[in-house]
Amino acid sequence: MKKVYTCFCTDIIHEGHKNLLRAAAELGEVTVGVLSDPEMVRYNRFPTKTLAERMEMIRVLPEVAEVVVQEHIMYDEILDRLRPDYVVHGSNWAQGPESSIRKNVLAALARYGGELIEPPYTENAEVRKIDWQMREQLAMPEARRGRLRRLLSIVPIVKTIEVHNGLTGLIAEKTVVENDGGLDQFDAMWVSSLCDSTSRGKPDIELVDLSDRIQTINEVMEVTTKPIILDMDTGGTAEHFAYNVRTLERIGVSAVIIEDKTGAKRNSLFGTEVAQTQDTIPNFSEKIAAGKAAQRTEEFMIIARIESLILEKGLADALERAEGYVAAGADGIMIHSRAKSPDEVIAFCDAFHAKHPNIPIVAVPSSYNTITEAELAAHGVRIVIYANQLTRAAFPAMESAARSLLVHHRAHEIDSKLLPIKDIIRLIEVM
């Protein structure tokens, strides 16, 4: 009997999957690969069921003879091992990032004479409804809130990008690229006070209060499913912070990051150029402890941001503070630096990670931007935040468009640099 292989990366079986399996079974004995958790995440299909549950869900289907784990999104490794006569996949992967997977399959099959079979993709109201329900499930506060912790258990480093409205949220949600022989995408979203303030045309001095910040969060949550990490500046007083933790936890925020400074807010990247005062370890630890005591779930995370390197107080001060904040209950440590070199951040990470290998380190490589995610991960960083790139990219693009309209007195010259309106509509409608 001929051997047939197909791969599923889903938490639910709908009519489209059943149609595919029926087509596969007509060709021979069917083996189904279940995509591993890390590759599901990279493929932008966050698993709501465990790998074992997904395998059992498929194993009971009558068309299936065997279920295996497919470790990588690209098929060549498993096809070289199983050498099926046929690979069966729906016809919906000829365009976009998924086309690289198709090319990989064709190349692997060509090595030994296998054949790719592509039944028509099932497109009907029931399939669309189920897909929509799955997205809605991921968007619910209960599912979203715990997703950051789950990501930390699945992927080596959580890739986080700044968002400041629904549109940037959709960009974070939908951007998938083919890279290094696989697919890649962002895991989480960062709602920063700088970008939230900038998008409103206001200075970054805690002028935008939490109610306005929550409005931004709600706008993002309405059109996305990925976890949100919120920049809370200093967090305010311990009493206010505890109250706000409950609010943010309830609406589905996954984590907050608070910085160990006091007084009027000044952006950290100014460093010692402007007057900035660091809080004492006991005071800031009290705030962390108050927040941890206030939260009602184990999923919510409070991450302490250390400003010692920004304020040129040195590595020893940063490590002493990290010890105090972890003792107070901090779920993670963010080390901040405005240096162009990553050396001082790496020194901190190596020392802290050696003593606390299970406490996530957060890095924000805005200034030291030559270091890669893999290099950060090698030094114990578990969350990388691209904290302001979308905001900084948008301003020059919009200013350029405005200047062109004024210079040329028409829209023709700038049109080639603009996203087609249909693409904007498609981006929004897909959700």
Name given to the CATH architecture of the largest domain: Alpha-Beta Barrel
Largest sheet: 8 strands, parallel, barrel
Low-confidence stretches: none
**Percent of sequence in beta strands:** 15-25%
Fraction of residues in H or I helices: 40-55%
Count the beta strands: 17
Shape annotation: globular
In total, how many domains does the architecture comprise?
A: 3
Oligomeric state of this protein: single chain
Structural class: alpha/beta
Q: How far apart lie the N and C ends? A: 42 Å
What is the count of DSSP helices, taking H or I runs of 4+ residues?
19
Main β-sheet, spatial strand arrangement:
6-9-10-11-14-15-16-17
Mean pLDDT: 93
CATH superfamily membership of the largest domain: Phosphoenolpyruvate-binding domains
From the alpha carbons, calculate the radius of gyration and give it in angstroms.
24 Å
CATH class membership of the largest domain: Alpha Beta
CATH level 3 topology of the largest domain: TIM Barrel
